Amino acid sequence: MNFLLILLLGTAVVWLWKRVNRLEQSISTLEYRTAKEARAQEDRIEAQERPSEAATVSRPSVPLTRSEEPPEAVAQEAEPPPAEPTPAWEPEWASQAAPDLAPEVEQAVEEPSQRFQFDFEDVFGRRLPIWAGGITLAIAGVFLVRYSIESGLLTPVVRVALAFLFGFLLLGGAEWAWRNEEKVADPRVRQSLAGAGLATLYAAFYLAGTQYGLVGQTVAFLGLAAVTAGSIALSFRFGLPCAVLGLVGGFAAPALVGGEEANLPLLSLYLGLVTAGLTVTGERQSRPWLSIAALVFGLGWGAVLLLAGDPGVAEVIALGLYFVVLGAVLPAFAGAQGFERPLRFGSALVASVQLALLVDQAGYSPLVWGLYLLLGGTLAFLAWRKPELRETSAVAAVVAILLLAQWDGAQPMMFALVTAGIATVYAAVPLAHLWRSEATRIDLFQLAGAPIALALVAYATFGDPDADVPELQLALAVAALSAFPLAGAWRIWNGEKSGDLALLLAIGSLMLFGAMLLVTPAWLAVAMATLVFAGLFALLRERSDMPLHALPWAAASISLLALFGSTYLGAEMVRLGGGTSDGDLLTAGIRWLAALLPWCVLAWSESDKRGRGIAEVLAALVAYGLVAQFLPETALTWAAAVGAIALWQLQPGRIAAQLTLVVLTALWAIAPLATWLAGGVAALLGDPMLWRDLPSMRDLLVRVLPLAAVLAAVRLPLPEGSSRWLPHSYLLAIPIGFVILHTLYKQLFAIDTVTGFTDYGMAERTLWQALLLAAAVALDRGLPKLGPQPRLGALVAGLALAHALWFTGMLHNPLWSRQAVGPTPIANLVLAAGAIASIAALMLRRHAAGLPRAIVDGAIMLVVGVAALALLRQAFAGSILVDVPMTQAEDLLRSLLGILLALGFLFIGNRLAERSWRIGSLVFMLLAVAKVFLWDAAGLEGLLRIASFMALGFSLIGIGWVYARQLRGTPSASPPE
């Protein structure tokens, strides 16, 4: 089983070894050929530029034959081409494998289809036997020792001595093969012998120290270290196998020797030397994988060393220096072609984390903090001349700040010293790069981020956000840290990179704002933000770059956030809605005034239209909040309205501010307007609009009237792209004014019960319709400074007619609803309501050009007919028409009234030459005839029925005769049939 395991491991090692070796040879071959072709190209260019003697010789017009060529040309052709110049350095394999590899490469280029052909003879006859021989020799040594142990032929001392002897003999054979290269003619012979010899020596020291105890662990460890050093040294002579064994054996030696208590300083020194040797070897031999593997194994051992427990002073120093070397020094000099950046970044990150763990294990002592700062200083020193290394310093800075944040129970003085050290290494150095105009983006971000991160960590460690007391020491620390970004901003003030300047200014200003917060009461946060805004605005008022232009806006926004982020806000917000609170008015006034000033400045100075509008909106809102801290509810709405009117008069261009104040005024009016609207909708559906359903007089005067006043006074322009029908702001005052007038008018009757509505509802509606009609007439004839407004008058007249038709004619008609019309016959509310509705319809008929006249005439005839019936009913029933039953005489008079109305409408139609009136008369006539035949005659018997029909017949004949005579007098009328 052991044999199979050894065989498998050996095969795997050889296969990996072979793969890496072939890869390196291929890369080196390509590099060699590229350099060769470049040199040839340079020679051709020089030959073309150099004047040629042959160019002066005239050529014959007839080409020469081979036998006729000049002797000089033949001699020149016979000369061999000049030898290629030998490069200053050539890889070891160039003189050995180049003759063999070059044809293979050329063949691979010329014949791509044959690149991956398998040659059984080449693989199993030429390549594998030599490597198999080396492995066999190593296994033979192992079995030889094993056989001697099992047979008891040799003592342990002799066994170990023979192992050493065999190992040195194998190394001697490798040396002989190297010295007799011409005889051996294959470099793999010496490589296999050297590898087997080194493996045997590793085994010998392991047996002497661990298996048999012939020597102490220290001697065995030193022996293994010596073999590792020999492997690294022999890799320059014998190549890859020795390097691989040095890598594996060097890092496996501490584990092979073992021990109860490891000597961490010595072990760290050994691992550091091994890692350094292998890293330098990989760089010298152009084996980047060797350098990478060495650093990976070295940092892996660093993690193992951290598990040793509580380290002492010597252990801390040893481990700290070990991490500094592996994290900063070696990656900077490792020749990992193509992997430099990830190698350096990863090494710095792992070493920083491991050193941070060591800081935590050592209790955050000054010594271990100094070692961490040594790591940062080393990275900064190496990156001073190599900008590509500066990102490693940023990695260490992030880990340092996170470590500082984890430091519990830190003493203030010690914490301050460590913070100062971190700021010096990770902020002052980037500032120096910026000062020398050599800063990269990493330096800029590090200069901006490190100070503010340290300030936040310091406040999180020692600050008390719940205690509103001055913290002078923290304020001084934050102010001192802000000097780094502010100094950087001062250095690049005249530069072209406005974004970099804006970043540094923003961080520095923010830190100064934080420092001021630490020494002032919490309620002054808004004032401190305003001071920062003032400084930035004064500095940047002449700068038009967008990043710099945004800084004052950011400061103003912070002042607004400080206003709303305070515990004082609750009491102040109550006052915005008209409430009262016990808060300090002086404090509230200072806070809101401080928040107002930045937005006023921006609204006044901003040239961009959109930005100015935003500033005006916020300035108007904050100004309203300031006024609300001192004015009672009854004056707040008027304050917003007066402010909008004053702005429109003094600053008509401040449209956004005016609109904001108008909206604030409208917000106050929403509740009373909604109350009125709810009552109005209910009234449209048939429920009486009682006095208690209206807004109170206080709300009307304090909330609704300011909105009407501001809409009437402020002429806001239409927005761009709006529809033409969108009304101007002053037209919006009309419906608001209508609500006010209607509510005031309802106070006159103050109908609050159903009984009151029965007694005074008809009178209230009729008077309201009369007032609307009077307003329509006034608008039609013209008002001062307005002139005649016929269309607006027609609109109001239509409103009066609609109100009469819907409420008096449909919902609350006294013919079927309990509505008092007055006790006097004819001269009562019915006559007044009918007259008002008729006049309103006549105004519509005259001015509403788009409204069909037939509809208006029909409305007039309908109003007159209903009013006539109601007047007839009032003569028999009194004030309330539905309380007394109808008599037969009244019913017959209704029919007669219909016939009379038909004759009257016919006469009007003839006089006005209006066909609609004649059609209306016919409708009334037909209704009257239908009533007589279907209703009146049904209740009569005998002679009364005969008399009624005779009277109806003569009446119809007479009406027809009259209608025919009327039509005969009309020019447009057709002759009767």
Describe this structure in words.
- Helix 25 runs parallel beside helix 27.
- With 977 residues, the chain is mainly α.
- The protein starts with a helix and ends in a 9-residue tail after the last helix.
- It has helices at residues 2-49, 71-78, 94-110, 120-151, 156-179, 181-184, 187-211, 217-238, 240-257, 264-284, 288-306, 313-333, 340-361, 366-383, 390-405, 412-435, 441-462, 472-491, 498-519, 525-540, 546-564, 569-576, 585-605, 609-628, 633-650, 655-684, 697-713, 729-749, 754-781, 790-811, 829-847, 853-877, 888-912, 915-936, 943-968.
- The chain contains 35 helices and no strands.
- Helix content is 76%, strand content 0%.
Notable characteristics:
977 residues; mainly alpha; 35 helices; disordered N terminus
Shape: elongated
Unreliable residue stretches: 1-9, 51-118, 972-977
User: What amount of the residues lies in strands?
Assistant: under 5%
What is the rounded distance between the termini? 136 Å
> Which structural category fits the helices and strands?
mainly alpha
Q: Helix content range of the residues, please?
A: over 70%
What is the tally of beta strands?
0
Largest sheet: none
The count of helical stretches stands at 35
Nearest-angstrom radius of gyration? 55 Å
Calculate the mean pLDDT score and round it.
77
